[in-house]
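User: Show me sequence and structure for the first protein, then do the same for the second.

Assistant: Starting with the first protein.
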Amino acid sequence: MSMNFFKHLHTVGKHRRLVRKLCFKCGLIRQGLTHDLSKYSFAEFWSGVKYYQGYRSPQAKEREELGYSAAWLHHKGRNKHHFEYWTDFADGDKIYVEMPPKYFVEMVCDRIAASKTYLKESYTDASPLEYFLTKTDRGGMNPETAKKLEYYLTMLKDNGENFTFKALKKYAKQKNTPHG
């Protein structure tokens, strides 16, 4: 367990550094600096230590063992760069709100950084798109957000990081909605 503490701490730190670097490329300085700070909270960090594996999110293992992830429930409710944050309920229906540009761009940076963190040497610019297409619950995402995410991840696969981050920086500068 003590080794998992340091391994998880290293993984979280590495992921946050990668997201910070990518957010900075998009002009999102504040978001780069504050990204995923909730991962250091007791609710998220100790779960991460307990379920640490090194090759995927500890939340996946926690979900397998408990049927849900308490750490994920905590995390998604505090971090606007997760599309799940933008789900609401009205009259018994789920409402999927389109993500404001600055949080959308942070989500793209987060997905790329997570792929790099967990896939290590086997990462390619196609990896985040592959994960999105095979593992993301797109039915739980606003359709416009899903379309844009697939568009930018395809752009990454086809044109590489430099091209994609120039486009994302431009998109991030668009006016955010009042809820953003």
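Switching to the second protein now.
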Amino acid sequence: MFSKKILAAKEAAIKKCASYFAGPDAVAEKNTLKVLDAMREAKVAAVHFNTSTGYAYDDIGREKLEQVYAHVFKAPSALVRTHFVSGTHTLATVLFGILRPGDELVSVMGAPYDTMRTVIGYENPSKGSLKEFGIGYKEVPLKEDGRVNYEALQKSIGAKTKMALIQRSRGYSMRPTLTVSEIGEICAFIKRLKSDCICFVDNCYGEFIEEQEPIEVGADIMAGSLIKNPGGGLAPTGGYIVGREDLVELSSYRLTSPGMGAELGASLANNRLLFQGLFLAPHVVAQAVKSAIFAAAFFAELGYKAAPLYSEKRGDIIQAIELEKPENLVAFCQGIQKYSPVDSYVSPEPWDMPGYSDQVIMAAGTFVQGASIELSADGPMRAPYSVYMQGALTFEHGVLAAMGAAQELENIKNKAL
């Protein structure tokens, strides 16, 4: 099944990074207690798992779930709905809910994720973008080491700046992921420059990586996807927004309509999946982090550049690996797909995904379509042809899938000889 080289690299990687697995487990225990305390305080009961219909006024399950999310993320208010179709939709709801014509958005971490560029509309023009609504935009270039350029940020924050967008994860780049403490430093710096500037954190892929979350260190509002970390692999769709009550309320008006906001919205999916997914999330995230640590050590053993290194502190579940050639990127994703529980017989190919400027290849043999907390791997077809591997509901699957990807890389290399 696997070559001797792959098996030897696996054993070497396990030995090398074994001592680093205790960290995610310890964080998972503390975060599980945090979620458990929130559910106990809210008195979650089976009656809150029911679905609702129509306008869904007084949906007690929906209201209880949002109470729990607010408690877990230490936020005054929360909006948690299956009506959000993706993380990008959730983030866009915040942007369009709060920003007005004449306001300015500043992206702190350089160019945001590809689909967010389409929402903003300056680099990737699109109908209905922020640009079309007369909302200004500035992008702060990163320093050479991929860190925040505070000097450039200071020059970018002006009188019209209403909001600063802080993307926690690396996106499709090799820059370091932000830690919670770094987010706190960024928020404090921005507030010193302009006290009423709204610090908005794109928290996708970062939930439960650390014991604290961005709201606790100064962020005003943050958002993410339920089919990433906080859904625990059970949420069938959806997103969440947490933060200042007035900002969450404005976002709710964008999701539904002004005057209605969070008061409406039927729970069409069984709420049990959202409650149970959140309960499992700290443990599942730890499995994903340990899978990423292993992958970093494993592919380094095989001669590939990995970011972050297995020994480095992590801010999200993503493991980036530079593959250097387009055929390597395709082979890697096909290997991941082959060792997936769903659609394992499918062979992914690059295609023109909506919202992306380059063709993208994506391996995602997941139970929930596109769920990034389940094991998946994807990347844009552009140099240095890096793949971004994330998730794994179990560490065992993370190890086996990484070995499957490595075997595909070895196979195409042998064919070329």
